[in-house]
Design brief:
The chain is α+β, with helices and mostly antiparallel strands and about 375 residues long. The chain contains 12 helices and 16 strands. The chain has helices at about 25-30, 120-130, 175-195, 215-230, 230-235, 255, 260-265, 270-285, 295-305, 325-340, 350-355, 375-385, and strands at about 1-10, 15-20, 40-50, 55-75, 80-85, 100-105, 110-115, 135-145, 145-150, 155-165, 205-210, 240-245, 290-295, 310-315, 340-345, 360-365. The strands form 3 sheets. The chain has a 7-stranded antiparallel β-sheet, sandwiched between helices. A 5-stranded mixed β-sheet has the order 10-9-8-11-12. Strands 13-16-14-15 form a 4-stranded mixed β-sheet, with helices on both faces. α1 packs antiparallel against α2 (about 120-130) and α3 crosses α4 (about 215-230). The longest helix has 22 residues, at about 175-195. It starts with a strand and ends with a helix.
Length: about 375
C-alpha cells in the first residue's frame, strides 16, 4: 500500500488517499474501512440517456463517486473488496442519496475520510505502507485425490486452488492405473503451483500430507523441473519442506506451520512471533491457568489490574459494527501498551487468528497469576459480605 496524501486534524478527524499495490492490501483496506466512514473511489456506472426523439441509449461511464459506507463485503478467497453505501457528494451521473457499491481495485487510488482515526486505524496504515520482507509461504496439503494450494502471507491464509481427482485403487491388480492416477494428480498440483506462485519470491514451500504423498509430490516437482530445465525452481530446492499432516484439508495446514523447520526459516517474521505467542498461550492454559485468560470480560479485568504482559486480539473485534464496542477494544489495546505490555493484533483469516477467534477473539498472558477473573463482581461482593 502506498500513502498518497494525508490530511488529519488534531482531534483525529480527516482523510487519507491510499493506493493498493498488492493483493494483500485489500485485507488492510478491509480492516480500515468501517460503517459511517466516507469513501471516494472510481466507479463504473450505467447511464441511460433519452434523445429528443424518445429513443434511449445505455452506456457505462467511469466516474468518481463519494459514498457514506454502510456495508462491507470481503471475499477471502480472491481478496476482493466491495463497499456499499449512499452517494453523499453531487455527481452528474448519480443522484445524492442513491445507493452504489464501489469495487476497490489494485493500482487505483481511494480516499477514506473518518470522523476519528484511532490508534488501530493509524497502525494499520503504517503496517500496510511500511516496506518489509514478504513472509509469504506457498503451502500445499494433500492426501489421496485431494489437495489445497494455499498462500500464507503476513496477514492472510488463502486457498488459491482446490484440486480434487478420482484415483483408482490398488486392489485387484490395478497398480498401473493407480500409479497413472497419482502421476496425473501430482501433475495438476505442480501446474497449479507454478501458475500461482513466483518461486523466487516465496520464503518457504511447505508440503504436508499423511503418508508419503508430500514426499512423492516433491520428487515429481523436481523431476518436472529437470525435464523442463526450470532453473528458478531448481534453485529453490532448499525452500521445500515436507511435513506430516493428518489430512489434505486446509485446517491441517496449522500442523505443518508449527514444525521446527518452518519456524527456523521464518524466525524473524511477524507470522512466526504470532504463532509462537498463540502456542504459548494454549500451553499455559494447561500449565499456568491463572496466567492465561481469555474472553472480553476477563481480559478487561486483567488490563484494569495492570497485569497483562501480552495481549492477543483478533482484528475482527476492531471491525465491530458498534462504535462503542470498537472504542472499548481500542482503549484496551492502548492501555496495555501504556503499561508496557505487548499487543499482537492477529488476522482473523490466519491460522493463529482462527484459533484465537474460537476463544472469543481476545486473550492475555499475564505477568503474574490472577484468580477468579471469570466471576461476576456481584457474586464476589455477596461472598465477601457473607464472610
Amino acid at each position: 500500500m502506498r500513502l498518497i496524501r494525508k490530511s488529519l486534524e488534531k482531534d483525529g478527524q480527516g482523510q487519507m488517499t491510499l493506493l493498493p499495490e498488492v493483493a494483500e492490501d485489500m485485507w488492510h483496506a478491509y480492516n480500515l474501512i468501517r460503517p459511517g466512514d466516507v469513501l471516494r473511489a472510481s466507479a463504473l456506472r450505467k447511464v441511460t440517456t433519452t434523445s429528443a426523439t424518445g429513443t434511449t441509449t445505455s452506456t457505462r461511464v467511469h466516474t468518481m463517486l463519494t459514498i457514506t459506507v454502510d456495508k462491507i463485503d470481503f471475499s477471502p478467497a480472491d481478496l476482493a473488496l466491495h463497499i456499499g453505501g449512499r452517494v453523499c457528494d453531487e455527481n452528474k451521473y448519480v443522484a445524492v442519496g442513491a445507493h452504489h457499491t464501489l469495487d476497490l481495485e489494485l493500482a487505483r487510488n481511494f480516499t477514506l475520510s473518518k470522523p476519528e482515526w484511532d490508534s488501530v486505524a493509524l497502525e494499520t496504515v503504517r503496517e500496510a505502507c511500511s516496506p518489509c520482507d514478504n513472509a509469504e509461504i506457498a503451502a500445499i496439503t494433500l492426501h489421496d485425490g485431494l489437495a489445497h494450494v494455499c498462500a500464507v502471507g503476513e496477514h492472510t491464509t488463502v486457498i488459491r486452488q482446490r484440486i480434487e481427482m478420482a484415483i483408482p485403487k490398488k486392489r485387484g491388480g490395478n497398480i498401473e492405473a493407480h500409479e497413472k492416477g497419482l502421476a496425473k494428480f501430482y501433475a495438476a498440483i505442480t501446474e497449479a503451483f507454478l501458475r500461482l506462485f513466483e518461486v523466487d519470491k516465496v520464503k518457504v514451500v511447505l508440503l504436508g500430507s499423511p503418508g508419503f504423498y508430500a514426499t512423492k509430490l516433491r520428487e515429481y516437482i523436481f523431476t518436472h523441473a529437470e525435464k523442463t530445465e526450470n532453473k528458478a525452481l531448481l534453485r529453490a530446492r532448499p525452500k521445500f519442506i515436507v511435513e506430516h499432516t493428518s489430512s489434505g484439508h486446509k485446517h491441517a495446514l496449522n500442523e505443518a506451520l508449527l514444525s521446527p523447520a518452518v519456524r527456523a526459516k521464518l524466525a524473524d517474521t511477524r507470522f512466526a512471533r504470532e504463532t509462537d505467542a498463540v502456542e504459548r498461550f494454549f500451553r499455559m492454559i494447561h500449565t499456568e491457568e491463572e496466567r492465561a485468560w481469555y474472553g472480553a470480560k476477563e481480559v478487561a479485568k486483567a488490563v484494569e489490574k495492570g497485569a497483562v504482559a501480552t495481549l492477543l486480539i483478533c482484528d475482527s473485534l476492531f471491525r465491530s459494527q458498534t462504535v462503542a464496542e470498537r472504542r472499548r477494544y481500542v482503549a484496551m489495546k492502548e492501555e496495555v501498551e501504556k503499561q508496557g505490555g505487548e499487543v499482537m493484533v492477529l488476522s482473523s483469516i490466519h491460522e493463529s487468528g482462527v484459533r484465537l477467534d474460537g476463544l472469543g477473539g481476545i486473550a492475555a498472558i499475564l505477568t503474574f497469576p490472577l484468580a477468579d477473573l471469570d466471576e461476576d463482581d456481584e457474586d464476589v461482593a455477596i461472598e465477601e459480605n457473607q464472610n
